Amino acid sequence: MTNSITVLVVDNEPGFADIAAQMLEHEADAITAKPATSSTRALEILANHDIDCIVSDYEMPQLSGLELLAEVREDDPNLPFILFTGRGSEEVASEAIAAGVTQYLQKGTGDEQYTLLANQIVNAVSQYRTETELRESERRYERTLATLHETTRDLMRADNKAEIYRLAVETAGDIFDVPVAAAYAFEPTEGALEHVASRTDPQTITDPERRYHRGSGVVWDVFSEGKSAYYENLRSGESADNSDAADQSADSPATAATDADLEATPSEDTAAPLCQNELIVPLGTHGVLIAGTDALAGFDETTTEPVQILAANTEAALDRAEREQLLREHDRTLTRKNEELTRLNHINEIVREINHGTAQATTREEIISIVCERLADTDRYRFAWIATTDETPPEPTDWAGIDAAYIDQVTDDGSRAPEIALVEAVIETGTIQEIKNVLEASDWERRRKEALTYGFQTVLAVPLADDERRYGVLLVHLGGVNAISESERDVLGELGETIGYAIRSVERTRAMLTDSRLELELSCGDERLLLNRLSSSLDEPLVLEGAIDRGDEIVIFLSTAAETNLLEVAADQAAVETISAVSEGDDETLFEVTVGVTPFLEVLRSYDVTLRTARAEDGVSTLVLEVPQQVEARSLIDAVTAAYPDTELEARRERTTRSARQLDTYLEERLTEKQHEALQAAHYGGFFEWPREGTGEDLAATLSVSAPTYHYHLRAAQRKLVELAFEGDSK
Known about the structure:
eight-stranded antiparallel beta sheet; Beta-Lactamase; rod-shaped; Rossmann fold; alpha+beta; seven-stranded antiparallel beta sheet; 5 domains
């Protein structure tokens, strides 16, 4: 508040107004007096100048002093008005007081009257200014509360935390007229208070890159303690976050800070003071609100309280926004899970239908067709197709939901096709492969046009395999980017295994009912093969006569020239567990050898392949494999060469064997009449039961032959049946 007082002196007597003005200025240095010789002139001056007090005569032409008072009161009911008149009477005094004059003073003859008048002026103006300031403070407080009320509604309607912080700092800057208003939010991942909003006033000097960490000053302390703090009279080069200023409670702002009150607080974030006076208010667990001003008066209770109210409302709004955000996220999560569950239920229904169809299928081709058609028939997948491992590079064998033009393009591109590269990656790794967005994948640039034409962006490739073999790859195309969830991947992965088992089942069944077998002749010079290592140390060929698979060990029968030292050579091999001579002839010796399961035998097991013959000489073996129809020759050869790289395919032959339906005809062709009779008699006479129901002598007597003759014919028939079981018969 300024101490200068401007007084308007009104008197119609010539010279008196000037004299009175001079006397008043002489009596009080704060008074500046302006003379006016009429009420009309006084109103003109009042309209164009700021007047703190009016001193007026009572009797004047045009308008009397009281009439002038009435005019003045219309504009300012509280402006100090002193009636200074030479006409003194109780009637005039009573009339003046009733009209609302501030003071009534009768003119005298000495200078003392001006001393008294000056005192009345100073007291009246002081009271007027105090009351005016109080009324303005009340009006400002009411406006502040109204603004806070409006802001609270806006805060509660804000959609997000950023909007809430912005409203808070703008409100703080507007209603308190401070140059600095800023909000800092706590980021749990960083463990720091980070700048989120500042008022848009050009005077704002807060650093948006600034942050406050644990132990970095009073801003952090206010946040961690949850208690407001007020700092005033910050010295040059200091700020609330690293100052020596007094730490005052915002509930009772300090008027000054002495050196005794100063307590240094170390800080990692040093900066010049933002303002002379700073008020820091916590926003619960969300952050802090900072208001600063350079005004000498700083913040008083009428300012501090609204700031705290604003902070409390801001905290409540942030709590609400956080709850609503959590609810929205929860709703989105539930919606996403419900959609995923619905999709999975639909996919599981499709899988059940596929499983039902494949269970009734009798061929591999029928299974593949069912899978493609059912997947393409749903709205979930744009189209589906399957590539098998029969060819190199793999080629599409069945498809649905897509025209042949796309498939032809894949086939024509061959190994350059991104789809084939994806298939080969699945075959190599045995795992599901996914292209999340073909429009951005560099290897799929040549398929951009097709992706836009057929409406797909995600491609999923699933291996069709059981525990032992891989039969091909299923590819499904979907619209949208990254359109496959983890759970859907798992379901389709299980579907791929189911299809693999189904294919293996039908091919095994088919193999049991067919009479044809594929015969592969391989040449292997790899020293890791046991036969090659043994034959390298022998001068004569080594022939595999047969093998018995006992699970954890294999018994093989090897024959070689009689003069060879196989026992000595085999004893040095760690793979050989036992070896013994079974029979010794003049030309050759048959050995029984027990070995552990080797990689070669593991491959034969996994593909249900029979090792028909094997002959090893000088470290090279010729192997003849009998391969069931359901086994892909290329896949088998790849498996063998993976274990024994120095292996080559020498011949591939189709071999026809006798089926159970042809057994009677076979027996009639191969067995003599006597052999057939001996075999029938043994079967029906209980010779093969245990204990035997009939002896060879009894059966010989039944057939009217001698016992040696009967045993001769029976042994011959048994030998031919054993040859059929273990060696087969080619046409």
